[in-house]
Design goal:
The protein is an all-alpha fold. It has helices at 5-11, 15-24, 46-74, 77-90, 92-101, 105-120, 129-132, 142-148, 167-179, 188-208, 210-217, 223-240, 262-268; strands at 157-159, 163-165. 60% of the residues lie in helices and 2% in strands. Strands 1-2 form a two-stranded antiparallel sheet.
């Protein structure tokens, strides 16, 4: 097998930001690519972005949501929680790199402490013992680091199977992938492990969003506009708070940008709630 297969498997985790917008369209909303809203000067590619949302919606309807529903039905909640914690723990090297690049030595110490405690006392990260000891996790990514260095975000992008992003955060995601030590290792066993990890990231995130997104969908007339507004607000809040926002999605932290809960989407939707 190619030595780059682990990276391809990690890239599969990009699907997770697609899960939220795709699910938004899955409860009777008009086809995402066919909706129209007021022109946004910071979204010059809206027409193409809406087509990308439609592609994502189709993949979600045919593959991702059914797989997530099966995962939810077949795997006990306690086991799902352990998988979620372990996936978050595996992101510790990426979080640490961004702590250091942001000059946040205090949080770097917390990240190291969390990894050591959860990898040992937490049974390979399946139990978040560190949080119980007063060391809560915090999301960091290189898109946020670039913003703190003064880089602008650029136009809004919605990429097929990647979800909401912008040029800065997309570049940041690529750097985060390269920073992850698991992408540097080859060998058949590691290829298989990386593929399993990528699949679990997708399943874990999509499963956690089934009910919240359905609730959100009942209150928003245009998923595209809601997602765009919420994504921007979420990123601005994370950057302004220097990483104070909670982890993307349920603790896994993957994606071309930051994820958000359905409640956060409604809070930042046009007109609020």
């Amino acid at each position: 097998m190619s030595r780059h297969a682990p990276r391809r498997a990690a890239m599969a985790a990009l699907l997770l930001l697609a899960l939220l917008p795709a699910a938004c369209a899955s409860r009777g909303a008009p086809a995402p690519g066919m909706q129209h809203a007021a022109a946004d000067p910071d979204d010059p590619l809206e027409g193409l972005n809406r087509v990308s949302l439609g592609v994502t919606y189709a993949v979600d309807t045919l593959v991702l949501r059914p797989a997530a529903e099966a995962y939810q039905a077949l795997v006990a909640p306690e086991i799902r929680a352990g998988i979620r914690n372990a996936l978050g723990n595996l992101r510790s090297p990426v979080l640490l790199a961004n702590n250091l690049l942001q000059g946040d030595l205090d949080q770097a110490g917390v990240t190291i402490g969390r990894f050591v405690v959860n990898s040992t006392l937490g049974l390979a990260g399946t139990i978040d013992v560190a949080a119980r000891l007063g060391l809560p996790g915090r999301a960091e990514d290189f898109g946020q680091t670039l913003a703190l260095w003064g880089a602008g975000d650029g136009p809004y992008l919605f990429l097929p199977l990647l979800g909401p992003s912008n040029p800065r955060d997309l570049l940041g995601f690529g750097v985060d992938i390269a920073t992850d030590p698991t992408t540097w290792i080859g060998g058949a066993a590691w290829v298989a492990a990386a593929r399993v990890r990528g699949a679990l990231v997708v399943l874990d995130t999509r499963e956690a969003l089934i009910e919240p997104v359905d609730m959100m969908m009942a209150e928003t007339p245009d998923p595209y506009v809601t997602i765009r507004t919420a994504y921007r607000a979420r990123r601005a809040a994370a950057i302004a708070g220097h990483g104070a926002a909670p982890p993307a999605a349920p603790g896994t932290g993957f994606g071309a940008g930051m994820g958000m809960t359905a409640g956060e989407m409604m809070d930042h939707a046009p007109g609020g709630r």
